[in-house]
Design brief:
Blueprint (H helix, E strand, L loop, with lengths): L17 E4 L15 E5 L3 E3 L4 E4 L1 E3 L6 E6 L6 E3 L4 E4 L13 E9 L6 E11 L7 E7 L6 E7 L4 E9 L4 E6 L2 E6 L5 E6 L8 E4 L11 E8 L2 E6 L4 E5 L6 H4 E6 L15 E7 L2 E6 L12 E6 L19 E2 L10 E4 L2 E5 L13 E6 L5 E6 L10 E9 L2 E10 L4 E9 L18 E7 L4 E7 L5 E6 L4 E2 L4 E2 L3 E8 L1
Parallel strand pairs: 3-10
Antiparallel strand pairs: 1-2, 2-5, 4-8, 6-9, 7-8, 9-10, 11-12, 11-38, 12-13, 14-15, 15-16, 16-17, 18-19, 19-20, 20-21, 22-23, 23-24, 24-25, 26-27, 27-28, 28-29, 30-31, 31-32, 33-34, 34-35, 35-36, 35-37
Length: about 500
């Protein structure tokens, strides 16, 4: 039995207007014959499973005390306080038919002798809320990296369907945008294929991610979608980010432009790449994390480059007046694949630090305010209680006060990695002193957050590989582990 979780209103037409309606009182020409005025939203749309509609304001030019009441066809469903808070008596359930519009009239009556009234007619609609775990597409890899395949997970039926995109190679990943699924072949594979959720077993197209004349792998790491007709392919082995049209029907029409990251190539890197590892879009801006490795694979100062998605021009962030680039220098080192997410106008970046460095303070979660590019450190791996060797890999953000990150520690003889998922407050940086959902005894390769704010955890375990789904209201596993046979490495969602 799935529990519900409130997330967001699915796209609805929301036209909020403010109106003023005043009723008529008795005759006479006295200056104190003014009826009250009621103002507020006349067509509010509210989330299902909540009660508060909106707050309304009643005023009287004569200074008389005002009493609020309700009339109208649906008035029995509502209550209003004398402070003007209009609420449902019982929270509406969209799936149960509580969609509206519900007609209610707010009546303001003054305490004058004539008992003058003002009215405001309101129609309340209810928006649907994604409240169950999403349908997922999961990349899996053989423990010995001899092959890979994609599986789907349907939480509604608790069914795992295997056998998609079976490959002899292992360096593949999966991404999605709406109902489109992108299967990316990385190092020395250099391909991207597009599928649709309605026919996941049939490729719509497959294109190379190599430029003509490339003699080395450009290693496509990620695809970041602006909309159905525009996306960016981050190529880890190149300073050129491809701008592509996922709706193109020919290979010639697929690539439509480039972003140039040459300015970020480190002086000690002769491979010609600043190692773009991950990207996210917020407020019409593309944020790209740049590892900037040396030839010896040691990390230089990491940056986040920012581009306008309409003009494809780089934005001068003025983050550092002393450097020669436009981007934002990070305090932490080595942002990995999946290192960047956004929530409510804030971009969060995770850094692992060098694989040979034991300094936990350089493994961080940092926050960039998208409007002004200001940077702050949220927390470091050193803030984890009793942490001696676990480094932060990636994070997800539920709200300004709730987020999760995974931290892993490597062991040898035999080689293994143990990972723990922690909750934290993205505003204060406080890390909860306990593991989430009994993590800490297995390797976690990836975490992701679906549209209903369920936390999905990819667990690599030779004996029990699979995906756990965690309810972020309770921090407990929502369902039994979805067995994937091979180790899951990436999770994408189809809504």
């Amino acid at each position: 039995m799935l529990t519900t979780f409130k997330k967001q209103i699915l796209p609805l037409s929301l036209a909020i207007s403010t109106a003023v309606l005043a009723g008529c009182g008795g005759g006479g020409g006295s200056d104190k014959d003014n009826a009250p005025l009621v103002t507020g939203a006349t067509s509010p749309v509210v989330e299902e499973n909540t009660t508060l509609v909106s707050t309304y304001n009643a005023t009287d030019a004569d200074g008389d005390a005002i009493t609020l009441s309700l009339t109208g066809a649906s008035s029995s469903l509502f209550t209003i306080t004398q402070a003007g808070e209009l609420s449902f008596l019982t929270a509406p359930d969209f799936e149960n038919g509580d969609t509206g519009p519900f007609a209610v009239t707010i009546v303001a009556t003054d305490d004058s002798k004539k008992r003058l009234t003002g009215e405001l007619a309101v129609e309340v609609s209810v928006g649907d809320v994604k409240d169950t775990p999403s349908f997922a597409v999961v990349q899996t890899v053989a423990p010995d990296y001899s092959g890979s395949e994609v599986v789907t997970i349907d939480p509604a039926t608790e069914i795992v369907t295997k056998g998609y995109y079976i490959k002899d190679g292992s360096d593949y990943t999966v991404r999605s945008y709406n109902k489109d699924v992108f299967h990316i072949g990385r190092f020395f594979i250099d391909t991207i294929s597009k599928y649709n959720a309605d026919a996941l077993d049939t490729a719509i197209w497959t294109n190379t991610t190599q430029d003509s004349g490339d003699s080395t792998s450009r290693n496509p790491y990620d695809i970041v979608s602006v909309n159905e007709t525009k996306a960016y392919i981050l190529r880890y082995g190149s300073s050129k980010v491809w701008i592509v049209n996922p709706q193109a029907t020919t290979a010639e029409d697929f690539k439509i432009g480039e972003l140039n990251l040459d300015a970020y190539i480190a002086d000690n890197n002769s491979n010609g790449t600043p190692n773009p590892s991950a990207g996210t879009i917020v407020d019409g801006k593309l944020f790209i994390t740049l590892q900037r490795l040396s030839d010896a694979y040691s990390p230089n100062t990491a940056y986040v480059a920012v581009f306008d998605t309409e003009t494809d021009l780089e934005i001068e962030t003025n983050a550092n007046a002393d450097d020669a680039v436009m981007g934002i220098p990070l305090a932490g080192l080595n942002p990995l694949n999946g290192s960047i997410v956004n929530k409510d106008g804030v971009v969060y970046v995770t850094t692992r630090n060098s694989y040979t460095d034991t300094d936990l303070t350089l493994s961080r979660i940092e926050a960039i305010t998208a409007s002004d590019y200001s940077l702050r450190t949220v927390l470091t791996a050193d803030d984890i209680v009793d942490n001696t060797a676990a480094f932060i890999g990636s994070s997800v953000i539920v709200s300004a006060t709730q987020g999760y990150f995974v931290a892993g520690e490597t062991f040898y003889s035999p080689y293994r990695e143990l990972s723990t998922v922690y909750s934290f407050n993205p505003t204060t940086g406080v890390v909860a002193d306990e593991a989430i959902a009994e993590t800490g005894t297995e390797q976690i390769s990836h975490i992701n957050l679906d549209a209903a704010n369920y936390l999905w955890i990819s667990v690599s375990n030779p004996e029990n590989p699979g995906v756990d789904v965690v309810n972020t209201e309770t921090n407990e596993k929502e369902l039994p582990r979805f067995a994937t046979e091979l180790n899951p490495t990436a999770i994408a969602f189809i809504e």
